[in-house]
Design goal:
This protein has helices spanning 32-35, 40-43, 49-53, 55-68, 92-99, 152-158, 171-184, 208-220, 226-233, 238-246; strands spanning 6-9, 16-19, 23-28, 72-77, 105-107, 113-115, 137-141, 163-169, 188-197, 222-224. By secondary structure, it is of the alpha/beta class.
Length: 247
Amino acid sequence: MARQDTVTVEARPGPFGLDVSHAAVIVVDMQNDFGSPGGMFARAGIDIAPIRAAVGPTIRVVDAAREAGIPIVYLKMGFLPDLSDLGPDHATNRQRHQFMGVGEPVVAPDGTPSRVLVRDTWNTDIVDELTPAPKDHVIYKHRFSGFFQTDLEGLLRSQAVRDIIFTGCTTSICVESTLRDAMFRDFRCLLLEDCTGEPIGAAADRTNHEASLLSIETLFGWVATSTALLHGLGAASPADLRHTAAV
């Protein structure tokens, strides 16, 4: 089969030509504090079902991307143990996270001590089903956008990435914040709607998740499903895709 650099993914507002040799998958904040029983959201009574629903489709996307040689980048929301990167007392970032109990000591489901949204604890670990592979990249962030004071852009540039496939939570906050910043840096962004989840506004007539999808497909990038992406990647054999990614 001839080498195939670009595959077509059916998307909105139109087909997305994914350049496999210059692509990456970003998994935003699929961590225990947001997506697992016993995490920050669940403890606060926030329905984590929309986030849990995104786990299965994301597993399939990540597996297919690895097979195609597409790098995977995990973002994790987590603060230093002394909370020095939370911002000053007047900062909205500090105030809103304090409201959610950032830094508070808790007991993880396995009985070990942990802390809400603090780095290198159970709370900020990626959910078990999406545990990163040894060659995947993991980057901590301390604001909603994964580009703010992190090495994310440098990593993507070093991998010659131009197209970013977005998954994760929550759609209208950390996913959209990171996607907007990616678009501002001239990356092309493809969000997979069934690989993202959003509890905010879930009971509204039009959810925050749906509002974000509309904004993204109108101005910031493209929106597709995991099935459409997998179908597109299936247009080329795994051998061809691995060869393309290695070039």
